[in-house]
Give the backbone structure.
Amino acid sequence: MKYAPIPVLQYQSILRCADFLHLLPICPECGEKAIDYLYVGDKNTGIGYLPIWCNKCKQGIQLSRVGIPEGAKKISINDADSIRKNIPNFNQVYPTD
Ligand SMILES: [Zn+2]
């Protein structure tokens, strides 16, 4: 079952709540409670990108050039090994506007 596409505004809300992503109720694509995220960025600038994916259906989004909040789960953009180990290959879905 495919849920309706979610508007970009909702993704922006997700970003604002990124510290609480583990509390997100369900995946908008499959309805399972299996959302995960990991900031990938530069520790000097505090800027990076943010993949958000579902561990169940392996769909997700990626937000570019985001500020990394204090205390958020993050890895270095230079640590290719960690990126490969911690972020699954997921199909990127594109929000509607
Ligand atoms: Zn899902």
About this structure: The mean pLDDT is 82. The pocket of zinc ion is lined by residues 27, 29-30, 32, 34, 54, 56-57, 59 (CB under 6 Å).
